[in-house]
Design brief:
The protein has 391 residues and is mainly alpha-helical. The chain is built from 14 helices and three strands.
């Protein structure tokens, strides 16, 4: 155990958060996939083992990411953006269609699918952190700073929003937060917001999924007028939460998992509350709030602007996504397809979430090493001073 701890660097609390969320995920996924396994004639452990395999792969990627100096991600961000935009466009045109949405592309020869918006989130945040940190001296220059920033945000937003509006809106919000932290002027931020509003209006009323978006918004605003099939997911999520009570029905005793279409991904938070009650739901909220707190501490201690912006952007992305998922489950927002980070069953979402955690830990590791070096230098000065006094 001590050997493992000696090889993992960075904030120990974040490592603990990852372990706790992983355990919760395994329990919740095993419980909520029983009905799915039965319908497909598979053993209950099939999906658990598949999920465990993805989580082990995620931890491996997290370890590799945290060992790499975070400053290398500045150069990698340019390559990621060059890959991401064509991939998003390819996904819209030739991707796999599920529920009238083209969000995935198949990985040849593996039988697996790849959600390109997961890569886009990582690419845009790292690219914005790099651009904002390197353009601080002329941050208000329109041609050199503002146009590249606005262009990257708007292009990625529209390419994601056409198939996945909820993810695009969250990423746009994180981008605006980074622009504020990066000292972009209020007028320029207002221009970006206005451009985003125009694109959003076009997607909602003219996009290929306009009927779905309008239907979900109307169902959320006027549930009493909605058809039963339109409010089916949200209704059964509310039933799961209401019947969970304070302490819950106990692990594996959920009944609404048999009715909810996605109790292991989009509505896994409702399944957790049904089985572990209000206390279990509050515990999940507390974990993500504590994660945000630890990440903010990293941001305030980061010696370089790039590290601070990188940690801030990734932590905001993870926590906003978490609270968006939980808000939908408890009826505080329209139905979306956003997973609960490190808890929902998934493939690429787990892997890219793990990489995001690894990058945050890389920034934290760099801070710890700097503080350790400063301590060594201070001790050397003390020893030299004592030797000089003796001489």
């Amino acid at each position: 155990m001590q050997r493992i701890l000696s090889k993992t660097k960075g904030d120990r609390w974040i490592w603990l958060i990852v372990i706790v969320l992983s355990v919760i995920s395994l329990l919740a996924v095993y419980s909520s996939t029983g009905t799915l396994a039965y319908k497909q004639g598979k053993a209950n452990e099939t999906y658990l083992l598949k999920h465990l395999f993805m989580m082990v792969g995620g931890v491996a990627l997290m370890y590799i990411s945290h060992k790499l100096d975070y400053r290398y991600y500045a150069g990698i961000s340019k390559l990621l953006m060059a890959i991401t935009i064509p991939l998003l466009l390819y996904t819209l045109l030739f991707g796999n269609h599920v529920n009238d949405a083209s969000r995935w592309i198949a990985i040849p020869g593996t039988g697996l699918t790849f959600q390109t918006s997961d890569l886009a989130k990582l690419a845009l945040i790292t690219y914005l952190a790099r651009t904002l940190s390197r353009k601080q001296e002329n941050i208000k220059d329109v041609k050199q700073s503002f146009i590249p920033i606005m262009g990257s945000v708007c292009v990625v937003f529209i390419l994601i929003a056409l198939a996945n509006l909820s993810t695009a809106l969250m990423l746009f919000g994180v981008s605006i937060l980074l622009l504020i932290i990066g000292r972009i002027s209020v007028k320029q931020i207002a221009v970006v917001c206005l451009a985003g509003a125009v694109l959003l209006t076009g997607v909602i009323f003219l996009g290929p999924r306009r009927k779905t978006y309008v239907s979900r918004i109307n169902t959320f605003l006027h549930p009493e007028k909605a058809n039963a099939d339109k409010s089916f997911q949200s209704d059964h999520a509310k039933i799961a939460i209401a019947t969970g009570g304070v302490m819950g029905k106990g692990p594996g005793n959920s009944t609404e998992r048999n009715f909810l279409p996605h109790p292991y991904s989009d509505f896994i938070y409702a399944t957790i509350i049904e089985e572990y009650g209000l206390m279990g739901g509050l515990f999940i909220i507390a974990i993500y709030l504590f994660l945000l707190y630890r990440c903010i501490k990293i941001v305030t201690k980061a010696p370089k602007a790039f590290g601070a912006l990188l940690a801030a952007g990734l932590s905001f992305s993870l926590t906003i996504q978490a609270f968006a998922n939980m808000a939908v489950a408890v009826g505080l927002g329209p139905v979306t397809g956003v997973p609960l980070p490190l808890v929902s069953m998934g493939g690429t979402s787990i892997l890219f979430t793990s990489v995001a955690f690894g990058i945050i830990l890389s920034v934290s590791r760099h801070i710890d090493e700097n503080e350790a070096n400063k301590g060594k230098e201070a001790n050397k000065k003390v020893v030299v001073g004592q030797i000089l006094e003796v001489a």
